[in-house]
Structures are given as structure tokens and as C-alpha cells.
Amino acid sequence: MFVDVDGTLLEFMPSPNDPKVTNETRALLLRAHIALEGAVALVSGRSIDQLDLMFAPLRLPAAGQHGQERRLSDGSMSGAVTPGAVLDPARHRLRKFLRKVPGVLLEEKTMGLALHFRRVPGVEDKVVNEAISAAAELGDGVEIQLGSMVVELKAGRVNKASAVAAFMDEPPFTGRVPVFIGDDLTDVGALEWVAAHGGLAVAVGTRVRAPYWLDDSGAVHAWLMEFVAAIENEPGNGG
Ligand SMILES: [Mg+2]
After folding, report:
1. Residues 65, 46: contact at Cβ < 8 Å?
2. How many domains does the chain have?
3. Quick one: how far is CA 116 from the chain centroid?
4. Are both 73 and 178 inside the same structural domain?
5. Side-chain half-sphere CA neighbours of 154 within 13 A
6. How far is the CA of 101 from the centre of ligand 1 (A)?
7. If you count Cβ atoms within 10 Å of the first and of the last residue's Cβ in the chain, which end, N or C, has fewer?
8. Do β-strands 105-108 and 142-147 pair in parallel, antiparallel, or remain unpaired?
9. Which are the contacts of 196, defined by CB distance < 8 A and separation ≥ 6?
10. Are residues 73 and 120 part of one domain?
11. Which residues pair with 116 in a beta bridge?
12. What radius of gyration, in Å, describes the C-alpha atoms of the chain?
């Protein structure tokens, strides 16, 4: 079970710092973790450090920064593919750009630089062009990822799909039916990967399409609740 966070598990908020994780959500994830014998991972554009702060005391297997970093089910970290230092020249350039375009937010991660323009949607073209120019200066090994009201420069050639594929090669995920739930353009690759590997690809909202869909994060909660309860009530699960 692979679950995106913002817009999927949590309601989409106007600023990346806003969403609050409720104890109800923590309890749901914990129940899923137990019912699926540990095979639940968060797959997010946020860093794993951020996810840990938000979901504490839970520390689930996770893919952070669109797959740039992964925490395996034994708690160990898989090594980053490309050092984030490759982004440093763009970091400098984008900080200067921000001064010219008020309202745009630069989120600096170790393996990515994200320009959020949710507060000023009118500047999308300007921001995307700047991100493309900045990436072009850096050459190979840097990718552009367009999300909803965000464009991100990413170091390395990994993404949510490659993160899901890597998890599926490891216990306790390997040999199981993959489920991916996501709401955003950054989830498309993982949704396609899961659908192509006999799994359940679930789109949330109207931004992306998949064989299955749910309306919003409320519907995600309700569905997960039913899913977990069904497993808990299977004969032989002690319920
Ligand atoms: Mg999302």
C-alpha cells in the first residue's frame, strides 16, 4: 500500500506548511500497517524528515522528495542516487528570481528545489520558464517536475514510480499486490507502474486519471477504513 500525502491522505492546502495530521489519520495508518504486516509506505514530495515531524510518533516506510530518499521497512535509509550539490548554482539563481516575483515560495530541499506559486497563479508561465532555464544550465542529471501550482528541479533520475518499484523488490512488499493512491501529476508514473504490474491504481480528485478513483481525502479515509476492517475481519487474523 503506497499512499501519497498532500491532497491524498491530507486535504490539499494553499500553503505547503499548513496541513495538520490528526490522530484519526495516525490511527488509520497504524491499523493499516498492522493489518498489512508492515507493507504500508508514504510516498511524497516532502522530505522524510518533514513526514516524520508531521506523523510523529509514526515512522512508516517512506519515499521522500519524489523518491530521492527512501526509508526501508527495517528503518534503514537507502542511499541517495545523486548528491544534491548539483543543484547549488540553481539555488543561487532561484533565490534571486524570487526577489523579482513576489508571492512565489522557494522550498529548498537537499535533492530538490521547488517553486510554489499557489498564491500567485498568474505567474505560472514565468516561473516554469525560469525553472526550465535554471535546469538547462545544470545539464544532465537534473529533471523538471511539474505539479499542481508547483514546479520542481530534481537531482537524479528517480521518481515516485522508481521508488515504488524499489519497494516492491524488498520485504515486506515483494510478492504482494501493489496499491498506489495519489492525486497529482507527480503520481502519474507510479499509478501507471502499479496498473501495469497487476496492482490497484487509485486516483484522487480530477487532476489525474487511473482505473479507480476517489473524490477527495475524505473518501480516501473512508475507503482505507473499509479496506483495513475487511482484512482485520478475515478468518485467521484473530479478529
Ligand atoms: Mg499529492
Report:
1. yes
2. 2
3. 15
4. yes
5. 25
6. 25
7. C
8. unpaired
9. none
10. no
11. 105, 150
12. 18
68 and 184 co-located in one domain: yes
Mind telling me the catalytic residues?
4
Mean pLDDT of residues grouped by 10 in the chain (239 residues)?
Answer: 96 75 96 97 96 96 93 86 72 94 92 94 96 86 88 85 92 97 94 95 96 97 96 74
pLDDT of res. 143: 86
Query: Ligand 1: distance of its center to the CA of 79 in Å?
Result: 24
From the list 201, 153, 203, the residue with the least C-alpha distance to 177 is 201
CA of 152 to the centre of ligand 1 (A): 14
Residue with cell 503520481: 187
Same structural domain, 95 and 202: no
Q: What is the CATH number of the domain that holds 215?
A: 3.40.50.1000
d(CA 229, CA 207) in angstroms, rounded, equals 29
The reply to whether 71 and 172 lie within a common domain is: yes
Q: What is the DSSP letter of 10?
A: B
Same domain, yes or no: 104 and 119:
yes
Q: Which of 10, 41, 16, 55 is nearest to 148 (CA)?
A: 16
Residue type at 161 in one-letter notation: A
- Among residues 153, 148, 154, which one has the least CA distance to residue 182? 148
pLDDT at residue number 197: 93
- Looking at the structure, do residues 88 and 77 belong to the same domain, yes or no? no
Q: Based on the domain organization, do 76 and 185 belong to the same domain?
A: yes
